[in-house]
Design goal:
2 copies of one chain form a homodimer.
Chain A (H helix, E strand, L loop, with lengths): L2 E5 L4 H12 L4 E5 L10 H6 L7 E4 L2 E4 L1 H11 L12 H31 L9 H22 L15 H11 L6 H8 L3 H13 L3 H19 L7 H7 L7
Parallel strand pairs in A: 1-2
Antiparallel strand pairs in A: 1-3, 3-4
Organism (chains A, B): Psophocarpus tetragonolobus (Winged bean)
Keywords (chains A, B): Detoxification, Transferase
EC number (chains A, B): 2.5.1.18
Chain lengths: 250, 250
């Protein structure tokens, strides 16, 4: 039976799993669970993942959730996956686990909370929260600095000095891609000072093309829609967007 | 060269790593990094872990941080560790990864934030935050319900129906132990309704004795000290403790 991947391409961990499957030639069926339509709360999806989160997979009778656990499982269970994604070497593997563990309460918490409270909340029927966005921006900027100065230290194009990407690169880059939804000025302010991070995003995109852009298409489309809503931006855009949620046009 | 474990026993992930080493007869040297004395910010410790967090390990020339990554590395690198801690079977291993990944933004975020903002902040030179504590309590209670109803479903004493503990049991139980620092009424209110969770904590403690209690001694000592500060508690204790931080006696 074919692997089933339950995903919403608007969710960054979903995209990481989809890109991984495509790049590695894994034969799978993508089943869309639209978060904005609250499909993750349906009884059908609850039977797949009682935690009601995407992504989730079903491989035969085996069900699994949490994107990092899924990426590790796929890299281990599908023999065609190249070693660099999840190396057999114990210490290299351990350092990848370490980056993935760190990710949760740092880059992910920062980026996801900023984007949610600056752009996405109204599209999900939630309130924007300016204070939460400001606090999360501090976490996000501190996380980007750590990636720039600790994990991208050295000459490798990828995290931990790697010459080829691992599942940690894919997971973290898909998270930073969510920042595409911010207004360009805000995005430049946050990402601009982190030159190695920008290069690393580009390297990961190149190493996984054309699948990376194909899976991110829905994000680029929403980015365009959001920018068309506010054609002539004054200064302090993030603040103005928080005060005037663009709910009406979605 | 002996394994070095940099830890503060007041930190729940530090305790998980220490209990694991002791239970599995791993020969190691414990190096205390006192968070309350800001020793994690020293240049010496920065050379061990540039992220400035405990626990961290040094095994020969290999340095590693993040407790989950450390537990997985130790279970894989030290041949004496029994399989149940981190099973070789791919799907059992994947489900343990899934619980550990979930832990970060759920039980850990909830429990650590509640305890920090109800009891610990003043001891670390920080402000208590009543709103943060209330929000975190919702995350904590929801997390405990998920553990009770999803992962402790069935007849096994441990997570995922296990008959013996895994690194996920140890990590999550060490986190719940931090709730010992709350006032008894608050602790009973939060943990009381979760009978299976209580039994699971006891099972994990029994499966790792006498090391579990030995490593948690510092927590029991602080619990006693905190309870002596407020001998006759009125109702609404958590609230009153937030308003009157017990800084003076520490």
């Amino acid at each position: 039976m074919k692997l089933k991947v339950y995903a919403d391409r608007m969710s960054q961990p979903s995209r990481a799993v989809l890109v991984f499957c495509k790049v590695n030639g894994i034969d799978f069926e993508e089943i869309t669970v639209e978060l904005s339509k609250r499909q993750h709360l349906s009884p059908e999806f609850r039977a797949i993942n009682p935690l009601r989160k995407v992504p989730a997979i079903v491989d035969g009778r085996f069900k699994l959730s949490e994107s990092h656990a899924i990426l590790i499982y796929l890299a281990s269970a599908f023999p065609g996956v190249a070693d660099h994604w999840y190396p057999a070497d114990l210490s290299r593997r351990a350092r990848i686990h370490s980056v993935l563990d760190w990710h949760h309460q740092n880059l992910r918490l920062g980026a996801a909370t900023v984007v949610l409270n600056t752009v996405l909340a109204p599209l999900l029927g939630l309130q924007l929260n300016q204070q939460a966005a400001a606090e999360a921006e501090r976490i996000l900027i501190s996380s980007l600095s750590k990636i720039e100065n600790i994990w991208l230290k050295g000459n490798g194009q990828f995290l931990l000095g790697g010459l080829r990407p691992s599942i940690a690169d894919l997971s973290l880059v898909c998270e930073t891609m969510q920042l595409e939804l911010l207004d360009e000025k805000d995005r430049d302010r946050i990402l601009g000072p982190h030159k190695k991070v920008q290069q690393w995003i580009e390297s990961t995109r190149n190493a996984t093309k054309p699948h990376f852009d194909e899976v991110h298409k829905v994000l680029y489309k929403l980015k365009k829609k959001l920018s068309e809503q506010q054609p002539n931006q004054p200064d302090g855009v993030m603040e103005s967007r928080i005060r005037t949620p663009p709910t009406s046009k979605m």
